[in-house]
Design goal:
The complex is a heterodimer of chains A (145) and B (359).
Chain A (H helix, E strand, L loop, with lengths): L2 E2 L2 E2 L5 E3 L4 E5 L5 E5 L1 H7 L2 E6 L5 E2 L4 E7 L2 E6 L4 E6 L2 H4 L3 H4 L8 E5 L2 H4 L6 H15 L5
Antiparallel strand pairs in A: 1-2, 3-4, 4-5, 5-11, 6-8, 7-10, 8-9, 10-11
Chain B lengths: L7 E10 L1 H16 L6 E7 L2 E4 L5 H4 L2 H6 L3 E4 L7 E3 L3 E9 H4 L4 H18 L4 E4 L3 E4 L2 E11 L2 E9 L4 H7 L9 H8 L5 H5 L6 H16 L2 E5 L4 H14 L2 H4 L11 E8 L2 E10 L4 E9 L3 E2 L3 H9 L2 E2 L3 H11 L3 E2 L4 H13 L3
Parallel strand pairs in B: 1-2, 1-11, 3-4
Antiparallel strand pairs in B: 2-6, 3-5, 6-10, 7-8, 8-9, 9-10, 12-13, 13-14, 14-16, 15-17
The chains are: A alpha+beta (145), B alpha+beta (359).
Chain lengths: 145, 359
């Protein structure tokens, strides 16, 4: 797996670097969304998770879930427009999985993208993503995961 | 001589407001800041009597709604996290709207520390020995004088705190979910060991509110090498968002969006007999998440420093039950502590015994 400053950034995933989220399209056309390991490192141990409800439409770059760590609260932003089709049932009782396994059991939400072929052009992956994450870490003054 | 700061931030004092208005302003200023339509801002705010829960908290698990309704106290949900508090005209709030660039850091814990250190320094200037206590309190000799929390949206964030100028302890205890029969002279006195006010520290030398706010503003200006431009109203971009946000926040749908029943957060009391004395533990457990929500430890044991127990309680708040032993050991490993006939293991045993009752 590729890493940037010690943070895992799997190169097969799509990313929105500003929102610090990853996305992965499955065979049925649904998009799984999660926080990057870098986002988890910035926020610290997550203690609460509230996803938008199944059936809700979420807008690109708007909140699809809210998480809390320490006493910080913040949104996880959807990288595309879409309808919520599934929330992660494990996180209601074990929000710490977001930190422990951000690309696996700690996934945040699944959306059915409204217009994937358009929105995918806003997302990046591979070496381009790695370079942009490195730049973001520089701006954020981030020492490493 | 210091160079004159070349950067201006906004100093906004919105006076005493309903809690819904105060939190709609949180949303308005932060969203506008994120869109680039608002400057970095320090805001002072006041509340009519209100019970304020953290964003993810469940109303009925935290508050005594019968007392609240009977006493015309408002209930509101903050945008920020943390625990339930009671505020009225005897305290005020301070909040900073900045972005990660202004602090050259994206580390949320580091941001909280830098802001809290700065506000603590302002209080030191008023003759109060205030310090930041991880994760989110400003304290004086182990007693909280300011509780804080934050909300971020993209690169912009809001970090806010209360400041206890004066405080009605008994009223707070009646507002929070503490059984009425447990509120007595002794429990109020125990609670006072955890909280302190400017009034208690400075007696008749408490400066007026304007001076306290000036001290905070000045400390922040020095820390960030900026100067203030004062105003008392929102800009037009913020006003527009404010009205929409108020409609959403001033509603039962917002306030009761999290409202799991009390039965999922039992309050347990237990007494443990250790060789060094009795340890009384009261704990509220989040049964669903298997976490310690709140913890109070009292007893007739002897420890130095006496604030040790309060710090231990703070370090265990909102932690996983399965991590109890590890967390207590880590706490005792990093502190210089003198205990008579008492070991870290005694606290682990006492808390574990209470927690076992919830299973």
């Amino acid at each position: 797996m590729a890493t940037v400053r010690g943070c895992d950034i799997p190169d097969e995933l799509f990313y929105n670097v500003d929102s610090n989220v990853w996305a992965s399209l499955d065979e049925s056309g649904n998009l799984t969304i999660g926080m990057t390991s870098y986002a988890c490192s910035l926020s610290g141990q997550i203690v609460s998770y509230t996803p938008r409800k199944v059936g809700k439409l979420v807008k690109k770059n708007k909140s699809c879930a809210t998480v809390e760590s320490g006493k910080w609260v913040g949104p996880v932003k959807a990288p595309v427009d879409g309808e919520v089709v599934e929330v992660n049932p494990l996180l209601e009782t074990q929000p710490e999985l977001i930190n422990a396994d951000p690309y696996g059991q700690g996934w945040i939400i699944r959306l059915r993208p409204s217009h994937w072929s358009e929105d995918v052009t806003d997302l990046i992956s591979g070496d381009v993503a790695l370079a942009q994450f490195d730049k973001k870490m520089e701006v954020d003054g981030f020492g490493g995961c | 001589m210091h160079a004159k700061p070349s950067t201006s931030w906004r100093l906004l004092d919105t006076g005493t407001r309903h809690a819904a208005e105060n939190f709609a302003m949180n949303r308005a200023i932060l969203e506008s800041h994120q869109q680039g339509s608002s400057p970095h801002t320090l805001r002072f705010l006041g509340f009519f009597p209100a019970a304020l829960i953290g964003f993810h908290q469940d109303v009925e698990q935290e508050l005594n709604l019968d007392y609240i309704r009977a006493n015309n106290i408002e209930v509101q949900r903050r945008l920020s996290g943390g625990g339930a508090i009671y505020m009225d005209e005897l305290q005020f709030g301070w909040e900073l709207y900045l972005n990660r660039k202004a602090l050259a850091s994206g580390d949320m814990a580091a941001i909280a520390k830098r802001i809290c250190d700065t506000v603590a320094r302002a209080l030191q200037g008023l003759g109060v020995d205030a310090h930041f206590r991880p994760r989110n309190d400003i304290e004086v000799d182990g007693r909280k004088i300011s509780g804080t929390g934050g909300y971020f949206d993209g690169d912009s964030f809001l970090y806010q705190g209360s400041l206890l100028v004066d405080f009605d302890m008994e009223r707070m205890m009646r507002v929070l979910r503490i059984p009425a029969e447990k509120i007595n002279h002794k429990s109020i006195s125990d609670a006072r060991q955890r909280i302190i006010t400017l009034r208690e520290l400075l007696a008749d030398k408490v400066p007026d509110l304007g001076q306290v706010k000036s001290a905070i503003a000045q400390a922040i200006a020095e820390e960030f090498a900026i100067e203030w431009e004062a105003t008392d109203s929102l800009n037009p971009a913020e006003e527009a968002i404010f009205h929409q946000a108020l409609e959403e926040i001033d509603s039962d749908e917002w306030i009761y969006q999290h409202n799991r029943p009390v039965s999922e957060a039992p309050l347990i009391e237990d007494i443990y007999k250790a060789p060094g004395g009795l340890i009384r533990t009261t704990v509220i457990v989040d049964a669903l998440k298997q976490r310690i929500k709140q913890l109070w430890i009292t007893g007739d044991f002897f420890v130095i420093p006496s604030r040790l127990v309060v710090d231990l309680e703070a370090s265990l708040r909102n932690t996983a039950i399965t991590d109890l032993e590890k967390n207590v050991q880590a706490f005792f490993a990093q502190a210089e502590i003198e205990m008579l006939m008492l070991k870290a293991e005694d606290f682990i045993a006492a808390i574990s015994q209470a927690l076992a009752k919830s299973q």
